[in-house]
Amino acid sequence: MISKQVLTVLGATGSIGLSTLDVVARHPERYEVFALSAHRQVGKLAELCRRFRPRHAVVAGEQEAVELRRMLSDLPALSIMYGPEALGQIASASEVTTVMAAIVGAAGLGSSLAAARAGKRVLLANKEALVMAGDLFIASLNRAGGSLLPIDSEHNAVFQSLPAGFDYGLKHCGVRKVVLTASGGPFRETPLEKFAFVTPEQACAHPNWSMGRKISVDSATMMNKGLEVIEASWIFGVEAERIEVLIHPESVIHSMVQYEDGAVLAELGHPDMRTPIAHALAYPERIASGVASLDLVKISKLSFEAPDLSRFPCLQLAYDALRAGGSAPAILNAANEEAVAAFLQGNLRFDRIPVVIAETLEQVPTCPLSSLEEVFHADARARDASRHLLARERAFCA
Ligand code: NAD
Ligand code: MG
């Protein structure tokens, strides 16, 4: 008999959260939903609570909690909580075996880390947590005896292409390089002079993947790949020099590992996040995810090219931040979140996103990070600096 995994889904109403629950619904004998969280999408969370009957639901604030209670007055046993502390509680509760960390951005760091500190099986989609505090995160997880299963499709593909039981350090596995594939996003071939006029709708229309708005913009600037390079360095214990980015517009090969003997192992599939999610949920077993079989005859051709760093300066900024170490990746992440939010609100031109991030990195000194407080401090300083820069940038959008 399979023992049930008891699951908390952080960010249940988002793209990853919904795909997770889609897979979970296919296997009621394997998963029990303990808690679900959302920020302000109360109506959507109410529907999910009706369907999955969690014991706890967490929302952004008191107002959302009151609204959710009103919508679910016929479910008196459901406990409704709010705020970051409550997110930490549902991530670390003793009943929970598995946490899907799928809150977007720095807002997910506290609860992702709470799951790591509690030694849970952490299914990590919230890449920003690792970018900001990779060292702390991995150390906490190891100390508490938890495990990390990557949800990001590239890292999940690398994980699947590594020998079973590797120890989050590739040095002894005969690995030469980790190759992260990238679609190149919607503007791979757009003339550079048009970058100034890109709208949020164009940036969010990804050719292959359907995702939340922030990661969609990150994919369009290729900052997403930059964040993933940093994420890979922490998950697999591999330095920047051995992480390569390869443009692969079809998004069929989700990433690969090159070995010393010349072999290359890869994971292929449709660009549908339910595959990595199902892999991580069931690991080391395999379960159905609802994703169709890959028809390579129909696809017929796969293509590759090197990334153009003059087109995508964000990728270079991320490599530089990884090499600089300390608080540099946290500063990069904070500046990027501020810049992307401003762009989505119509207050920053698309082509100015990398400029704001680069200037923030120049203005905020990098320092070593040894505690969560120091991470939040670096994050706050970077946000302050980028908000000043963004005030200047608004003039270009008028
Ligand atoms: P999304 O915007 O669709 O969903 C985000 C979720 O987080 C929602 O449930 C939202 O309510 C919640 N949330 C937002 N702000 C919050 C806050 N301040 N406090 C608490 N909760 C908050 O995002 P997504 O596309 O599902 O991405 C989630 C994470 O997964 C991101 O870190 C992203 O980089 C990563 N990821 C996503 C994909 C994808 O295909 N969507 C692929 C790989 C990695
Ligand atoms: Mg990815």
Quick rundown:
This protein is α/β, with parallel strands linked by helices. Helices cover 46% and strands 15% of the residues. It is built from 16 helices and eleven strands.
Note the main attributes of this structure.
binds magnesium ion; seven-stranded parallel sheet; binds nicotinamide-adenine-dinucleotide; 398 residues; alpha/beta; single chain; Rna Polymerase Sigma Factor, Chain: A; four-stranded mixed sheet; Rossmann fold
Explain this structure to me?
- It contains 16 helices and eleven strands.
- It is of the alpha/beta class.
- Helix 9 crosses helix 14 (328-344), helix 14 runs antiparallel to helix 15 (353-363) and helix 14 (328-344) packs parallel to helix 16 (372-397).
- The chain starts with a strand and ends with a helix.
- The model has no long low-confidence stretch (mean pLDDT 96).
- The structure holds nicotinamide-adenine-dinucleotide and magnesium ion (MG).
- Magnesium ion is lined by residues 152-154, 228.
- The low-pLDDT segments are none
| Total count of strands | 11
Shape: globular
Distance between the termini: 63 Å
Number of domains: 3
- Tell me, rounded to a whole number, the average pLDDT: 96
Give the proportion of residues in helices. Answer: 40-55%
Reported for the largest beta sheet, the result is:
7 strands, parallel
Determine the strand fraction and express it as a percent band: 5-15%
Tell me the Rg in angstroms: 20 Å
Distinct small molecules bound, one entry per kind? nicotinamide-adenine-dinucleotide, magnesium ion
Structural class: alpha/beta
Number of helices: 16
